[in-house]
Protein 1
Amino acid sequence: MAPQLAIVLIFFFWPAGQALYQSLLSQDAFGTSVQFVGGENFERLWHDATYLASFKITAIFSILVAVLGLSSSLLLAVLANRVVAGAWVYRSLLIWPYAVAPAIAGVVWLFLFAPSVGVVTYVLREWGLAWNPLLDGDHAMALIVMAAVWKQISYNVLFFLAGLQSIPKSLIEAAAIDGAGPWRRFWTIVFPLLSPTAFFLLVINIIYAFFDTFAVVDAATHGGPGRDTAILVYKVYYDGFKALDLGGSAAQSVILMAIVISLTIVQFRFIERRVHY
Amino acid sequence: MTRTGLPALSALRVATHRATGILTTLTSTLTAAVVMAFAAPAQAEVEVQWWHSMGGALGEWVNGLAKDFNETQKDFKVVPTFKGTYDESMTAAIAAFRAGNAPHILQVFEVGTATMMASKGVVVPVGKVMKDAGEKFDPSAYVPAVAGYYTSPKGEMLSLPFNSSTTIFWFNKDAFKAAGIDTARPPTTWPEVALAAAKLKATGHKCPFTTSWETWTQLESFSAWHNVEFATKRNGFNGLDTRLAFNTPLHVRHIENLANMSRQGLFVYKGRGGAGDAPFISGECAMTTGSSAMYANVKRNAKFAFGAATLPYYPDVTGAPQNTIIGGASLWVMSGKKAEEYRAVAAFFSYLSKADVQSKSHQTTGYLPITMAAFEMTDKSGFYKANPGTDIAVNQMIRKTTDKSRGIRLGNFVQIRAIMDEELEQIWAGKKTAKEGLDEAVKRGNEQLERFESANKS
């Protein structure tokens, strides 16, 4: 058996199987009374209006993170690719945020945008905008989207840069000789050739937004105000690790897993058709 | 982390998130192992593991207590370990318990009390530990409002009160002077708070009043202070079939008043949990309601003259003011350990309950004294006279409690507090009226109570 397979089995299939199993149980925090309850954990979620509302919030959040994350990092990658002198400095700086833990990213952005002491808040107030993510849901959403996008930009830029550098110069030069401007060259040559990278990153970014962003939310907004930024994975984390409701948390993560698997299938079936390898 | 596995993919992320903490623990364990291998012990000491959540200056206090106890005798050794915030150390202890390596002593915050009590066979009641070890133990020596919180319906003390604080009112004397408010007579009722806030605002103050721990100060302690029930069945003390009751006209009236103050810029919401502490200490907000344990922090960091007063109340409510409710944590003894280890725990708890140890802890940390003797000793030493304001919390607590004010013991309290936070934020933002928000919080909170009841029925 290949060692990779063992890693996948231990770190993916085993915990996923455990989650499936635990989602059918009801147990107290210390696991002293464990009861098989079948679909009760799922049924309860179905009747929970706040849980259903967080699907919409998660959709908005994930689309914003994927779209803003991919477009801004593509722009940065194209610009970084054109830099001639000191290119490594720009690239190192662009990769830097990837080394920051999500919780730290949340805190950094929280400091910048804190209602009373934040530097950015101060500037916004000077411009006449009353910034208050503590009570304004849209502001809170903007805050976590920014933090989540910033955190993922490095990863995206890295792949886009590699993709850009593997595009043969001769193609672009030929187009230039034929009289195509930079804009046209980008959309007719560079972008189609980048599409495998862009597609890969789209899948990865959606998975990132769904699974990997609870620490940002936990540090920046705690899902508030109200439940305006309580995305699905934050509730999984909160119910499992803060509220110690393992059954409910497991049921939610099973649902989340199903959503992401189906989203990935959809992406492979419909978007991949337009990708040129 | 746990033997039984974790929910799906997010588990991996949490694992990396926690990896730093585990590494630190690993390093310190290794260091300890190396040290122990070289230092040949003269005689076998019984070692007791104590997991706590006291960081910074409070961590030094905890380490000092263990060190002092270890130096007073040779048979037992208490090893304190910092395990992160309250919920982190509780999660860690649950994982350790499931894997069979629970610590002997675990510090658990007050909202985790019902969970600890309902988990059968997980803990050994403190009363039993003391009795079995033959230590002198008199539950009536403890301050009633503090010990009552951790006592079973049968009157058995389940955990040892360790660090308890309560809700009080803090104000900035300099800001009061600037607004022409008498600092010797700080507001004691909510109408007076609104009046003071209006005066502060009139002189250009941007944040007249804020609050920390809004659910604790404005709903939980508020209920006990006015001698009304927060939840039925004596706030959950008399059974798991308790239901929330904080949507009475009095509660609605108070939250409505705060919402009005919020709209007029008299009350500024600064976030959940203890987020309201910092704006008061920095001087940005002139008044706040928060924990009495803020004392050390305010004293060290505030660059203005500050004062403390009792929690405001509504003067037209009969029975108000009663007593306020404690927060903080207690020490639980975990099950499945050896008899001599329990003797060590009992000896340590006796040491912690000694009046001089208690009195010193109370004076250095601002936490409440847990025994009456410690309170009297502190009083005699002249500490309260020398440090005005430090006695406010104590006086709010040493009264005789009623069935409605003894404390609150609810299952899934962590979730219920989050629900209250969510609904209050909707009220402050003007998206819901006070009545709508509180009704919804009661309804959603009751679902949590029903679940806890059915999960712990057997």
Protein 2
Amino acid sequence: MRSLLDFLKGKWLGHPLHPILAHVPMAMWPGALIFDLLSQCQIGGNAMVRLSFYAIIFGLAAALVAAPTGLVDWSGIKKEKPAWKIGLYHMSLNLIVTLLFGVNLALRWQTFREASEVDRIPLLLSAVGTLILIISAYLGGRMVYEYGISVARMSKKKWRKLAAAGGANLPPE
Amino acid sequence: MLKNLLEGKPLRHPIHPMLVHFPIGFLVVSFLLDLVSLGFPEVPNLVRCSFYAMLFGVVTALLAAVPGFVDYSDIRRDHAGKATATRHMTLNLMVVAIYGINLWLRSSALTDFKISLVPLLLSLIGIVLLSASGYLGGRLVYDEGIAVGRHKRKTPTPQDTLHLSTETAAKAGEAIFVSVPNAEHLRNGETLRVEIERQAMTIARIDNQLYGFQEFCTHRFGPLSEGSFHGFNVQCPWHNSCFDVRTGKVTNGPAKVDLKIFKIETRAGKVGVLLTKAHDQKT
């Protein structure tokens, strides 16, 4: 159990896993929206419709893998910290976005092989999903850049050494 | 002003790590679509899809490069992470060049059903280099703390460490006075990062007074010379620990241990740090 948690936290890689995996849905789903819009403008034809479809699938696959790693990172934050609440919003929004793109994918399943443009409802779902995703991703970034979540978690020993060499007062190990 | 914008200060979030999602995601997907085209050549349009994904990836990579250069130039020259940042940038430039050639090779064969060998190999090399580079970029944030909490700081951060020696310093009894000429030019909210005989410290001007305190936060050793100031408190950019610069006392966690402080004095018209024997010990 312990080793599974460490694995999900990315200790074996020396880098938290969640922000690595999050790149894929974060790129794919706004990308799908762009491809939908391009196909509506009669650019790319069926290739664009397919590309959008594949982008949604790749995004979903990565989102499902990214979810447990995010959950583990979040569970390491103390409940009284402001980052805990932001993490909760981040997670809730991500669940909504994933559901939206799941429905979106299902709606395209019958038509993506032939269609030369994306229908209105899937396009709308892509737009709403992307909007919520951007808010959610921003919150995720704030957890790192405002509250330092996962920052210096794995490099603590290195920094301790540098601080000791710089004559600093240190906390007990 | 433009620099602040490209560093994402108005958004309170750096821009470069926001944009890099797109090249990473799309260049990887382009490669996956290539592989699918090898396995399922009967599926139409895969080669064209892959080309569009790659084009989108390269365009967004060029966009991400702009704030990336700004972030890079703002890392202190002797920062432990500077070499990693240089490698990250070099790899990215190589990746963009490889994908530029790749796009050019593909542009004349968009109607193929299967991707041909040379563009596929170029993509493979590109993905390997991109993964390495992305990993280094992540290490810059999660290990080196680059851009973490940077938006909280209103003034520029030190570009270099000032190394001073006690050899030419005036000995005043037990204490040693080391003059720090640059300290006089500091404006309110600005800092110097100074090292004197293995003592790393921040010298900051607050409310027209100079204060000296240890450079490393006592929580996870974040750089206080890049911290922000709230009254007489310095806030660590990483996890927001606060210390009173006059006493070194913790005023807000997560840090629990107080900072070592250094007395700043003016002697014979020169501003400097007064080092005592006590500074060699941990307090």
Protein 3
Amino acid sequence: MENLLAIRLSGDLYAIRVSQITGLTESRKTIALPSTIPELLGVTGIRGGLVPVYSLTALLGYNLDRSPSRWLALCGSEETVGLAFRDFEGYLKIPSTQVYAAIQDNVIREHVKDVARAAGVVRAVVNISSILDTIKKRCGDSRVSKER
Amino acid sequence: MWTFGRRIAAGFALSFLLLLGIGMVAYRSINSLTTTSRLVTHTHDVLEHIGEMVSLLKDAETGQRGYIITGDESYLEPYQAALTGVPGVIRELRELTADNSNQQKRLDAVTSLIAAKLAELKQTIEMRRKGDVEQAAKLVRGGQGKKIMDDLRQVAEQMNREERVLLKQRAEEVEAAASTARSTIIFGTLFCLVFVIASGSLITRSLSGQIGLAVKHVQSSSVELQSTANQQASGARESSTAMNEISTTISELLATSRQIAGSAQRVAHVAEETSTAARAGNQTVEKAHESVSSIKRQVDLIVTHMLDLGKKSQQIGGILEIINELAEQTNILAINATIEAAGAGDAGKRFAVVADEIRKLADRVGGSTKEIRTLIEEIRAAVNTTVMATEGGTKAVDLGARQFAEVTTALTQITGLLEATTEAAREIELSTKQQATAVEQVNVAIADVTKASKETEASLTQTLQTATQLTGLSHDLTRLIQRRA
């Protein structure tokens, strides 16, 4: 069985694997920080610690929208990262047979490897690991550029 | 311009004046002739008396001489006649010549001579009577008596001569007066004749001209009168026909007026019944108005309750928001619990099942909350719709109440108008009856007018005949005048 969170990003249907996140919370006050990473919205306080908040929409290649997001998906094992999005549609529990590998030609986003069919609707499954890798890479590039 | 009568009167007046002048002149001439003739006769009387006087004295002398010669008393008769006749002759002569002083003086002388002669005759006659013939003859031969007689004849001759002069003069005057009278009569008559002929001719020509002109005018006027009389007769006939038609129409109008009077009576009756019905309707409408007011109060109460229901629904909605929020938070917590259970591995599987059940429960709560919200929204919408409908009903009730008030007012006005209509219908009935009476009178008048038109037609026919006769007369008069002219 696959446990998925059904979300909507800029009007497109997406899903996040529950196994790839560490929590789901409502977005709280986010403090913007000066940064060379445009997807970084700022930092917020989660469970007594500061968590960087990135725009999932911007990370998936959509235009950056700095309007407040309601939901925040927490992920990352060593350093918790918050991925902000606006619309949370529900919790999906579907058979694994309903999750298919996305044909590369049909995948228009960088961080989508699978698609899931639920209730007659096909959703792109966001690869949170790939997102985290991208964030790490950006952060690394940013540190390098600062040291230089 | 002078009138005919004035001209004729003037002609006659001038003729009369001329005749009067001629008559006066003739009268004066004849009067003068008569006077002169009387004077001639008077002169002849004087001459006759003078002759008679001388004759008487001659007769007395002759008687005296015969008596003296014969002594016969019968010879004294002429003497006696002279004694009685001479004084009368002298007196008459004196009266006849009273206007002539010369003759009066001669008469005085004659009277003295006659007295002397008569005294001489008496003396001789007395002497003879006493027989003294010789003495008497001596006195006669003495010539005294002859001398007295000669003187007397001389004076008588003087008187005769003067009288003859006067006679001649008066004869000439008579001749002159007769000549004047003759001339006056002849020439005056001729002048009058000429004047009368001239003035008659002038007047005749003038009158013929003017009368001819007037006759022509009369002729043309009579022709026009004839034509006009024809037209008027035709018009009178048409008028008579039209009057007949009018009379028929007025009869129909009379019948219509009577029908209108009957209809007006029925209208008045219906209006009274309608007024009664309107008053009953007014009471019904007032009751309905009270019912509508009661409905309005009930509707206001319903609106108040509906608004309370809406407020309660809003409160329920608020509570549902809290429940929904709690359900979402529970869902999130369940999701997070599931995530944590997944992270716990096998140890968390049972927890994951519980968390999944909690999440499902939260989902169902969320779904139920959504359904309740939907229901509440529907209730609120229904309440709003009901409130709006009720407000619409309230407005409709208000409108109905106002309309009922207007209907009441209208019914009151209708009642008043119906009363006015009843009154008007009665007035119409009365007026129509009066109109019918008037129409009857008009019908009678029209009949009179028709009769008058027929009489006018008859009189116009007579006028036409008269105009025709007048035309004939004017033609005759024209012929007469032209024949004279």
